[in-house]
Structure formats: structure tokens, C-alpha cells
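Many introductory courses stop at the sequence. We go one step further.
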Amino acid sequence: MYNVPMDNLTVKKYTLKRVETKSVYKVDYEKELNPQQLEAVMQKEGAILVIAGAGSGKTKTLTYRVARLIEDGINPANILLLTFTKKAAAEMLSRASIVLDSRCEKVAGGTFHSFANIILRKYSACLELQNNFTITDRADSEDIINHIRSQIIGKQEKRFPKKATILDICSKSINKNIPADEVIAAEYSQFEHCTDKINEIIIEYNNYKRKNSILDYDDLLLYLRTLLESQPDIRKKLSNQYKYIMVDEYQDTNTIQAQIIKLLASEHNNVMAVGDDSQSIYSFRGANFKNILDFPDIFPNTKIIKLEQNYRSSQNILALANEILLKAKEKYTKNLFSTIENPIKPALISASDSKTEAEFIAQRILEISEENDIPLNDICVLARSARMTYELEIELAKKGIPYKKFGGLKFIEAAHVKDIIAHLRVILNPNDIISYTRILLLLDGIGNQTANKLLPVLTEDGDINDKKLPIKNTEAVIALSKLINENQQNIYSPSKVVQNVIKYYEPILKDKYDDYTKREKDLEHFIALSEKYSSLEDFLSDLALEPPDTSMTDVEEGAYKDEFLTLSTIHSAKGLEFKAVFIIGAVDGRFPSLYSFNSSEELDEELRLMYVAVTRAKTHLAITYPIDMFDYSTGMVLSKPSRFLDGIDQNILEKWIIE
């Protein structure tokens, strides 16, 4: 205290002591997070791109950032969390509530589509929509397409795509932000002669939806983008309402979703995008890999934070993952590391053929499970495509190993494969009425009633040409009967019988399925499977063992109750983890696919797919490939391991040979 003279008066002045105070936070962020996670959580303003390597705690980072924003005084209603599944958003907000308190539950969280639905119903009048519009599902959309299709095309001399294919073309055009013509040329070239008609159907489909106040899933995003672009006042209002935007799995966004985020952030640019460019594997669904690469260009002054510490895999497995990533042409450079030490190194195993490969995997599954006390539930076999596990499924059934398959049908469940098996069963046993009925129904002009009339005639002895058939058009039935009789009367090998049936079935396949070119691959594989048998009966018996929903038998009675091995495509396994992982069929030409060889972008996505597969493993990783896989489409023998694994040092990837 001191005196200050003021106009002949003395006034005493008192100085307050200023003590700096820190905000008191309920959550100890420094303790709970590693330095990189903490850096991401502490960033409040501006554009932030978090490159979250596999197993690096992405969900935890988003969860704690929600908590931190709220502790910093941000109104939960001003936070928008966008994810790709409702479950993911609910899980994050639930975890945030546990970390902090119930305020986190008031955050606006959900999928892009659910958010769009809420906004569009509120502002429907601005788009001349009724706010009680109906959201149609896939099946209903196909029915609408089918109705329009029947009115436009009538009878066509040339093949015309079915309703599901037309809807796929329409959806891909929207999600990839390209004209339908380009989609048809790139992915459905067999229908290029139908391009004008397909476009006409799509136009009428959109008119029908508009007239009847119907929106499909793609429309939700389209209309939201249109609303934000055409209504500046609404865009500004929404941007000011959602002042802090977070997007999970940003590498999986399509072009429209990225545009929506930019529009929503127009007033503040407070966007945190979390994702891993190296896990961008869904381009076939319309995901745009460039979105995450171009994020710093779209949002100026972006701060990039990399999460590289992995909490899932051993350092040996991550060493392999890092080597694979070095081969990527476009990427954010990252180096995954872990404190988890394990002496077991990943192994690359060559097998003499696919059957030996399957036998090895089945045997190693039992060994790993027993020797390391790893339950079957923690073991997974990953494949580039569902068809690559067919041989293994037969072997697992033989050894009594229970399994469930994700991302594709079991071999005998695929409709076209069931058709072939039905023909073979009738050849083996003409009194198999169920199989006989199935193959009759494949013929034009034959329904259930006609099939029931034909069965007694076809199953009795005698030459088909001498029989009176209860139908007008007898050619198709006679051709089928001749196929059955020829293969019954001659002593053919199983593979010869299969080839005869497939040759007969090919026109049916092409007429029944728009994607017949893909299904033909299954039939090629079916021939290869049959070549390993000398008896048709044995072949069919092995194929019939353990259908998917009843395959939950035990390896030994009572040994593995309620346990099952997981078979999965890599696409379906993203986000999952297992102690032991087998990657089957890693032969160059299958993984990566031959079809990707001429495109650096497609090759890079195949490489990312391998990275995703490798990083599902915690401690055990085995990658197998056969050295004599015959590719029927090219006439080539595929024998080399995937180029993504070629040249990797044996100190990182051991090399095994099956004796």
C-alpha cells in the first residue's frame, strides 16, 4: 500500500496480488494418453488431421477429445461426431460419459446418413420435399427400378442388366461423383450397348422418387449437400451450431461426404478428421482415397498428428507391416512401433498346391491352439476373396474344426455352385427329387407345377426321345436329360463330369446372373477341386460336410464348446484383431489380383489390403501361398508369392517350405 497525491488530497492505493490459476480438469489427460494422443486431444481450434495407424488407439483419442472439449466449456450441442456406424458413435459417446460424465451423451453423434435425415426433415420445405418423406431400403429401391425397367425396355434381343445391377450403377455414379456412363464403361462393359436405356431408367427412377416423396440412402447425402450449397443462411446457421466437427474413419468417406464436411465447417474450419490412409480399402463402395490425402489442401493450415504407437501387435509383426507400407506410392509416411515383445516372427509358407496349403493351415490351427493355449475364437484365416477358402473349408470339416465364415458364402451356399452340385447329385442319384426339381426350375418356361409333372417321366427308365413330355417346348428338357444320361452311362472322372455339367450350365449362368464373369471364377475353382478325387460320390460327400449354421461341432467332444475359428475376407475383418492370423492364397496374381496389375492406384489399394490383413494379428502371423495355382482366365500358372512380400529380409519374414 502506498500514498498517491491527487489534487491536494492523499489517496491510498492498494494493489491486488494476481495469482495464476489453472483450470481444474476432472480427467488426468496426461496420465491416460500417450504424447501423440494427448497432442490431438488438446488441439481445440482449426483443422486437425489425425493419421491413426492400425491399433493406435483411435477410438480412445476421439473419446477423450469429446471429454476435453466439454471440460473446456464447449456446449455438447455444439459438437458433431460423425461415424460410419451407429454403433461406433454410441460406443464413443458412452465411453466419453464414463471418462467424464453424462454431458457427453448430449453430443450430436451418428452416421452421415442419420445426420442428413434429421437436417432434411427440419428443412425439407427449402428443397420442396415433404417432411414425412419415406426412406426406401435396398429391396424397395430394386422393386421401383424393376417396375420402371419393365416399362422402358420391353422385350430385348440383347441382354439387359437386372434391377440390382442398375441400382448399383446408379449408386456408384452418385458416390463416386461420376456419370453413370463412366461406371458402365469401367465396371459393366458388357452392358455398354444399354447405356442410353440405363440412363433413361435412372432418370425415371429419380422422377418417381421425387413424385412420391421417397429418398434412398444416396439421396440423403445428395439432398444434404444441395441444401448446404443452395441455402447460405441455413449453411451458416448449421456451421455456427456445430462449431466442433469430428469425423471417424475419414479415409472411407466418399466425395459427397467430404464436400458436406467442408460446407458444415465453412464458418470456422474446426474439423478433426481421424483415419488411416493405409487402411483405405473400400473404393468399390465409392470411398475416395484422395479425401484424406487432400485434407490439408482443402483445409488450409491443417495440423497433422500421427498416432504410431500400436497397442495390439508385437514389434515383429509391425516390422513386417512397416516394410509393406514402404512399397506404397501415395501415403502419409508412418512407422508403427510397439512395446509388446514376442520372439515369434511372421512366416511366409510355400505349399506345393492349394490342397497342401489347406492341410497345413488346418494342422497349424490345431497346433497353435493346443501348444499356446489360444482358443479358436482368437484365431482367424483371412483371404483376399471368399472363394479362396473353399479348399480349406473342406479340410476343416474333415478335421472337425468348427468355424464361421464372414464376408462371403460358404462354397456350397453360393447359388451357382448349388446349381452345379444339384446336377451332379442327379447324375449320381436320379431319384434325388429335390436336386432334380432345382435343375428343372432353371429352364425357361418351367415352374413348380410343370416340374412336378415332368419328374415321374424323367425318372422312369427309357430313352427320353421315346417319352411324351407334358410341355410344348421340349428342347431344354431333352438337353438336360441327355447330359444326365451321358454322364451316368460313361465312366468319367469326377473332373470330367464337372466340366461337362459346367459346359451345359454356362448359358444358364450368363442368363441368370449379371455378374456371371465373377461367378465363372468359382466354377473354375470347382473344377480344380474335383481333380483331386477319383470318385464323384466322395467328392460330393466332402462338399456336403458341415454347412455353415450347423458346423459348430467340436474338435473333440467337449473340448471347444462354444468356440469357432473365424474365416473372413480382409474387407470384413477391418477393425478386428486376433492372437493368431493366417493369410491364405498370397500368390501373385491372386493377391494382388491380376486385374490390378495395370493400375498403380488399384495396386496401391491391394497393398493397403495386405497391410490391413497383417495388422489384424497380435502375436502369430502365417502367410501361405501355393506354387502351382492355375488361372483359367489367362492359362497362366501362378507360383510366386505376393509382390508385396517379395524381397523382405528373412529377419523380418521367415521363409518356410512344407514337406
